[in-house]
Structures are given as structure tokens and as C-alpha cells.
Task: structure prediction
Amino acid sequence: MSNLLEVKGLTKQFGGVTAVSDVEFHVKPGEVVAVIGPNGAGKTTLFNMISCFISPTTGEVFYKGKNLTGKKISTLAQLGISRTFQNLQIFENMTVLENVMMGAHIKLKTNVLNAAFRLPRIKKDEKLAYEMALQVIKMVELEDLLYEKAGQLSFGQQKQLEFARALVYEPEFIMLDEPMAGLNDTETNKMASYIREFKKKGCSFLFVEHKMATVMELADRIVVIDFGKKIAEGTPEEIQKNKKVIAAYLGEEVV
Result:
């Protein structure tokens, strides 16, 4: 089975500081891969390079064999890639339904010219966007809040909303930046169940997370970063026994 995502030698330097150094790993189709590491390890910088928010100093990222390095963020959605953010990126003054419908535009053929003339395509696309949004909103259990302003939702519900918007255009590869951060145990379990559900539908995931119990439960493989370098990669069972990983988290030296 060929790899869906390939990260090759990613390095990022800010001035004289190397935030990420020569990191390599891959994600196979249908796989859930977690990136973990202590605070300040370089996880977010790595994530932002993979999702084209910042360019690497050296190294490349390939998706389905195509080089993503230097691509515009907008092209990722067209390739079937979506991501969420550690800091929520929702439209607080729009309703739950409107927020998710915004994410559906990738699948639609409407353009500005068509919209200006209100061509028949518009009504068809609006109906399709509504149906796509409604389906994913039901999956994340927000259907009772369809017309609620996003800013009025609890933090956990806002996380569910952002997840729904990332999924509405049916991406194949989803990047989640700390999806469980700030959630209580019930909300964390819900989010984990959504990820499992979409994995069953054929989605692949790459996620950064601090909640180790959730990582061990969800991930097929785990990549561990410390001081910008990959120090380990393996199954949850392998990572739990890895002395370098234990040392990185406990601050001990490996003899």
C-alpha cells in the first residue's frame, strides 16, 4: 500500500534557532497517526509546515505522490485535505448551519459570475450545501443547535462545530491540531468517537494531542518529537515502552 502522506527531512529555522530538524514519517490510507511531545518540542511548527501555513527551510511534503511544499493553503482543500486549529477558527456571528455550509463551498461549482446573475446552479448548490452540512451536523450531534449563533455555544460545542466544518466537504485526509484541548472527559470521548466513525468511512488522520490516554486509544502509530527532532515512532505499545520517550516526558537522561 503506497503512502498517503510523506514527510521528508522537514527542517525549520527561525533566525539561529532550529525549531524542527530533519523530521521524517508517513501516513498510510485509513491510518490515524498522532504527533506527541513535550511543550515547545516543535509539534505546531511541524504541523504548520505540513499544512502549508509556513514553508520549511529544507525538506518536502508529498501527498499522494504530489509535492505540497510551497503550495497555497487554498489548494489543500481541492486535494482533499482539511485541518482544524488549536485556536478555534469559527465565525461567531454566524449560525451553526451557516458555519458548516461555509465549509461545503469546496464541493460546489458556484462562482462569482454565476452568483451575480442568480443562475439556476445557485439554488442547486445552496440545496446541496444545506444537505451536506445537515448530514455532518447530525453526526457530531449539533442538530438541535442548527440556528444558534456559534458564539453562544459552549467551548466543547465550538470544537465539535469546527470538526464538522473540516469534514463537510468529505476530505480524505484530516489534520487536527489538539482536538481534545480544553474538553472534559465526556467531550473528549465524543470527539474520539467521531474520529473513529470517520476512520471507518475511509478518512485518514494526523493529529497533535497532549492527552496521552486518548492518543494511546486512537492512534495506529505515534511520532514523538523532542527539541524539534523525531526521537521515536511506533505503535502505542512500542511508544509506551520506549526509554527515550519516557526520558523526554520525565526529563530524565537515558543511560
About this structure: The longest strand covers residues 17-27.
